Amino acid sequence: MSDIVYLTVSGQQQGAISDGCGTIASVGNRWQIGHEEEIFTFSLTNSITNTGKGSHLHGLRFCKLIDKSTPLFVNAINNNEQLYMEFYFYRINRFGRWEKYYYIQLRGAFISGIQHQFSENNLDTETITISYEYILCKHLIANTEFSYLALPENYNRLFIPPLNPGLKTLNSKAVGRLLAAGGVYNGNIEAFRATADKLGGDASAGYEQVLNEKTIGLGIAAASILFARKQPNLRQLEELKKVKWVDENAGMSQRARNYNDSATGARSNINTQKGQAPTIDRTDTKNNSRPVRFDGVDGNVMIDRKISVVTTQKAKDQAIRQSEALNNNKMTGRWEVPNQTQASRAQKMFDELGIKNIEVKIVKEQ
Prior knowledge:
Helices cover 28% and strands 33% of the residues. With 366 residues, the chain is α+β, with helices and mostly antiparallel strands.
């Protein structure tokens, strides 16, 4: 096959089957950094036909290496275990970089066949055939999708992996961070700290992780989630740990500074009262980690404000770095500009660069 496919699998009985399948212990020198918890898939076929009264699902078949998951798949077929499967497809874009462009999700999936192949001068592989009750297909770049549920009356019995139970514990560090966010938002830090102390466990430690000079911005960003949603997403709060803060560039105009400082989630240094910029790390081609700046943060969306959009090579390089950093951290971005002229200029540049994970929004100056 010309492109790369990675698979994650969770079983109703065995849990996260794909965890550790991309490690050296599992696949030897074929492991790939960043995909240690996924299964490398060589090929995939899926057949759906029209019966005249609807669709008939013939099953999905894929080929993979013999790895850590091989005995677990045998367990699954022996026990008729229900699986939840996600396939991620990658291709090379016009800039020579890998991009995730297609996605398949299966629910109510059961293994109907396994064929192991060990032969001379060939990789040791297995071909697995899956029957399923629900399929979702998405083209992530062109923004199209298809879904089909074979038996609607059985929808509620389809297995979906639960959230990490550690994030639901009332005295976990995650809850402590959530309380810290509330303390920052309400300006009542000590009262929320007392609540964390009363919960015990790791709640106090989680609270202290947020309320120090380096990470107080996380609390502010998390507070926007806490009070914008009836039920805050604790997994999303975990993502916000990736945000760090640095002092703003002192060379910008006062007009640009005022515009940038009014972005959602913008903050100032609690000691110097100077503006600070949120950053997330980007991994370059030499596997070095470098911070990439933005102006604000709204949940898991990084915000950059542009009072005037320029299209110099330096500006294009910045946009590419931001896009790559967002991909590295599984986040999205938003450029906020004051008028339609700047919005059109920004969108044209993104289209030319093939940047899909940063949207453009008009936000007028105050």
